[in-house]
Amino acid sequence: MKKLPSLHILNGDASLGAFETADFPGQVVIWREVLSEGPVIGMLPEQEFWKRRQQYIIENCHGTAPEYKLKVLDVLEKLNVANVFFEVILWFDTDLMCQVNLLYLLQKLSKIKPAVVSVCTPVDGKAVGYLSPEEMHHVFENRQVQSEAQLQQAQQLWKLYAGPDPLQLQVYLQQNRLLEPHLEKALELHIQRFPDCKTGLGLPETEILRIVKGGATTEQELIEKFWHQQPGYGFGDLQVKQVLNRLQSELIQAEEPYKLTTLGEEVLDGKRVFSPAPVWLGGAFVTPEQGWCYSQDKKQLVPSDNLAPNMQ
């Protein structure tokens, strides 16, 4: 059977305008899932995996079941037959949210086996959705064709990201050179989302406290400053609001103008430990009883017997 020329996969609707203006040939689909957020439980059968994802999106991202079917499940069906295309081109930025989605798609395509899989990524600090047509064509002409080794590594990394023990992912990152150029930085940021041994907070929560202490008093100020100071996460408004909600009202006053509470000041200073509500980070369910925490001294996850006594 003669193969169709190309399928382009864009990460989110924000990239579509720039892509259409650049006028590339081939078919296009938009990937709208956000696999950096919520439960990503690799041990589940595929149908149950996506059922859990749908439940998370409906409960946390204002979605509906019909919307999820149209925007995610129907796209997955098309990707399941991506081997009818000669080349599949993935357009993804360098931040954590994009790179986790890219990782999932690379490992999926490694099993579907189109003839060529390639990745288009703008330079760090730029986003596909803001590129000019000339810049889009430059990125396309310099796209990275994925080797079999890269695709096989994507399978292993996805298994670890979606696994229950982030220490295993960390060990892999320490012992292996990542073949995908932007994945290492993104996954290191993922590791830093886990609770700090001295405060109980991940890096995004800590950054929110710093921003409020620095004088941000409104939600919009918080969102803008977080994006400026931690662009590597790629968080949009919704993700920053979710982090903020986990800190209110114990550490940050519930209403604007925002201000740290006394406990918030003490946690930020490393004098108290605070455990926010349990949260999924990849395949790990983070609770106060988990077996690991992030050591700022060692710059890595360590067994949780290093966790400071909970003085909350």
From TrEMBL:
Domain of life the protein comes from: Bacteria
InterPro entries (UniProt xref): DUF1835
UniProt xrefs under Pfam families: DUF1835
Domain called DUF1835: residue spans: 8-117
The name this protein goes by in its record: DUF1835 domain-containing protein
